[in-house]
Amino acid sequence: MNLRRRPALAASTLLAAALLALTACSSSGGSSAKKGGPVTLTWWHNATTDPGKSAWQRIADAYHSAHPKVSFKVQPIQNEQFTTKVPVALQGDNPPDVYQQWGGGALATQVESGKLMDLTSATQGWIGQLGPGAKGWQAGGKQYGVPYDYHIVGFWYRKDLFQQAGITGAPATIDDLKADVAKLKAAHIAPVAIGSKDRWPDAFWWEYFVLRECPQATVTKSLAAKSLDDACFTKAGEDLKDFLATKPFQNGFLGTPAQQGAGSSAGLVANGKAAMELQGDWEMAVMPALATDKNFADKLGWFPFPSVPGGGGDQQAGLGGGDGFSCTTKATDACPDFLKYVASASVQRQLVQAKAATLPANPAANDAISDPTLKVVLAYLQKVGYNQLYFDQALPTSNGQALNEAVANFFAGQGSPKAVADSVKQGGS
Amino acid sequence: MVETTPLVLRKAVPTGPAVGTAPPPVTRPRRRPATRRRLELLLLLAPALTLFVGFVLAPIAVAVYYSVYRWNGFGPLDDVVGFANYRQALSDPVFQHAIEHNLVIALLSLVVQLPISIGVALLLNRRMHGRAVLRLVVFAPYVVSEAVTAVLWLLILQPGGFVDEVLRDVGLGHFVHLWLADSDLVLYTMFAVVTWKYIGFGIILLLAGLQGIPAELREAALLDGATGWQATRFVTIPLLGPTIRIWIFLSMIGSLQLFDIVWIMTSGGPANASTTMATYLVDRGFRRYEFGYGSAVAVILFAICFVFALLYQRFALRRDTDGALTRGLA
Lengths: 429, 330
Prior knowledge:
The complex is a heterodimer of chains A (about 425) and B (about 325).
Chain A: H1 13-22, E1 39-45, H2 52-66, E2 70-76, H3 82-91, E3 98-101, H4 104-111, H5 120-123, E4 138-139, E5 142-143, E6 146-158, H6 159-164, H7 174-186, E7 190-193, H8 200-213, H9 216-225, H10 231-244, H11 265-270, E8 274-280, H12 283-286, H13 296-299, E9 300-303, E10 318-327, H14 334-343, H15 345-353, E11 359-360, H16 372-383, E12 387-389, H17 391-394, H18 397-411, H19 417-422
Parallel strand pairs in A: 1-2, 1-3, 7-8, 10-12
Antiparallel strand pairs in A: 3-10, 4-5, 6-8, 6-9, 6-10, 6-11
Helix pairs in contact in A: 8-10, 8-18
Chain B: H1 4-15, H2 34-66, H3 84-91, H4 93-124, H5 131-143, H6 146-156, H7 162-169, H8 186-211, H9 215-223, H10 228-239, H11 241-256, H12 260-265, H13 277-287, H14 291-321
Helix pairs in contact in B: 2-14, 4-8, 4-11, 5-8, 8-11, 9-10, 11-14, 13-14
């Protein structure tokens, strides 16, 4: 479950400087255990709290009892810490055997370390079960990770507030959405919540406009080239500018966090203080902790990002990603076998039932989803032509983060549609 | 202290038993062969030196080394770019603004926090009811961790949050602002939170300084006809000088390195309006995986702090430490 929470906060300047310095201090040369002998897999995942934490522990225990020679050292690590711990670990000679992996350009960056296990041959017999989404965990045509769930970004909305504002159906086009914003404002309801402090929620908006304006081939090609020069990218920025001009967001949205506290964008929707939010399917898992109304889930509905009339892109394309795991070269063959186990229908069902995953990677486990709204989300995910990986994840990390920053500045009224598209070239230092 | 003993010994040996009173008679000058002294030095200094070299000097050296590379932290270190990272950092308007923000915080600390600290310290130095409790209250925020402080204030300063509600309740509704979302205001909000967090430390430091000032001096001034204000202005505050200079030093370094609170509350936003050098460094280093560039920024930050520290030592702290640390170094 990628909650995409904000990045690590504990590091001080000195620590940061020291870490920067120590990153490559250790020498390489890991020792891989003998084949067939007992092995212990060190496993880093991001479920530091329940239900995920105990769900993963149960899965490790079950695999161990079926394969007594394979033991686990499970180390749940805060989601935000992965960005700092993974590069340090991959430079050192003692990386984990299995660790959380979100795929895309970040995966490709990590592959450069030479410490990721090529899973192509080990997975080719069964990876097809996970659908085309599993390609997100490839780099250079090779499989370097396996997803266990998929994500899609869309609008979570309050049915009660929509009704109060006299809105009858979900908006089909961006003009409908603008009209709904006006209606909600007239009813003195904050139309859209957004956590702009965290930057990436802003990027979702820009990226969806890009998907509506740019054909899939253009998006794929431009992201691979790290150059968003096609006019459609600038057009997307102009669409966004028009939409921002309706002032659709809650008061003070530039300082609002996405998932922290009742005043966060997720909290505002969960508590009925805002009518909708463009967020991932994980919001269902984020909101319970922030909601004062424990029946909030009944009041929530979901609709996909509306179409942009005249746009040259796929009007149904989704934006999303997923969570998965990679094996390092330190691990034995037990690691890909374990990932196969995690991707199997029965374990996938367990994950969904335990709420450790929302939308399973293996569609054979889809029947385990019980929440009616999530069924809507799943239906859309299955229907979409393609589900584009979030740009910040699809691009190499530095370019992706430069883009997020430029979009966030654009939300704050700085820069131009052209400057946002150009920002991708900044990264790479 | 360490230095005085051998000095006395060395003087005493050639002159023999002292005539007069000046040097104390040394009856049995202990011989300390040079090798043994060196061994002692090595033994006593080794643990501290190892830690210092391993965890302070080596990382700095490695950071300098990385700073001339273009490196994302994963592949081999093979793309030497020379000083390009430094040039890029110094010409990046975001980093220039970050330096400016640090300087604004430093200046505000000096003109706002220092007078308040001195005032409160003078007050709390008086005999009064509940003094211990007041001191505790003043110092409490300093004990709270940076992360907790930042999350606390993040929630308090949300639109419609505690601060806004209180302002509305007392009829100051027009004073409600977007504390964290207004690019023109956010840096000053940060300063207010930093002040809340650290002022207790300054006050305690100054209180300790005040207690080191003999009461007789003030009494004597008062007997000589000085008013209370004059005694404070011309006796107490000058004698508090060394403490004030140390506080300024710590405050300036703290302002230059400001990170945790800003990172958690705004991540440097909105639109980089509250970015500091340290948040910029972490953003570029760990968020963007530009480790070479991040190292260059770290080195610049280090250089700024180091130069400031040296100059401050040389020109401001010297008079306080003269005779203790600087003897023979003129």
